[in-house]
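Data availability (excerpt). The following record was deposited with the supplementary files.
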Amino acid sequence: MDPERYGVSFSIKQCRNFQIDPVKTLDWLLNTAGIKRYRLMSYWDECEAVQGTYDFSALDQQFKQIEQAGGIITLCLGVRQPRWPESHWPEWALKLPQAERYAALATFIEVVVERYKSHKSVVTYQLENEALNRTFGLNGDFNRKRLRDEFKLVKKLDPTRPVIMSTSNTYGLPVRRPIPDIIGFSFYRVMYMNGAYRYSKLPVWTFNLRAFLAKVFLRRPCFIHELQLEPWGPQAIWEMPIEEQDKSMSVEQIATNVSLCAKTKLYPMDCWGGEWWYWRLTTLKDPTIWEAVSKALTSEY
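Predicted structure:
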């Protein structure tokens, strides 16, 4: 699968939620699904559970597998990274005064960048996923000065690679600093909110308009950093029966989401849901979801 068109996010925490082996899951995504572009997470609470003691064994393993398969990586940095609870503070960091907490976070970001910047597989960084999204997640911290400081730090540590930041809603543009090198948009069509399923009626052309404005006024390119290809229902996915999962992400909805998103032509597009595809295939013995994803993505060539 062409990494300039489609990739996928990969989360060890989501694998743990589904009770699937992350090494086997990533191997399947690489060598069976044929996906070569990945967004990987450097979860602070996983990699520095004890202050000053680092454990990058799981992330190192992901790098090893992807590099052996000839893949490329966007490495997420910061405390806010994909998957619940969105802000991945270590418990010890939450107990620190703000200034010390921010300093500890900057140290962790520096450790991560220094560890992985020599890997040619890293093509971009993503800093603080949906950094100012106040509607979702726990322990949110919405300090714009901290974001500016983090952006400057990453550019100082590795000026050779672009830094992605994603918008925090489906309408805006990052017109205030920090202005990233690349802007990421989310593409969601079916969401469960306030006790009911909500169907997005946002026209595809609005994504192109935002990208045009970013190009003209900010001189920045845009892409789809999350293409919804997993359910969003009233419970966690692993707690929902198949019938409930299909209400927001059926075979038909998969085809619709990919088809609509492809019309934006905002490549590359990082899919959201790889762990779910594998879980449905191996744990629930249901191949229909992966077959639908594969057909939808390859039909867009």
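Summary of structural features: The radius of gyration is 18 Å.
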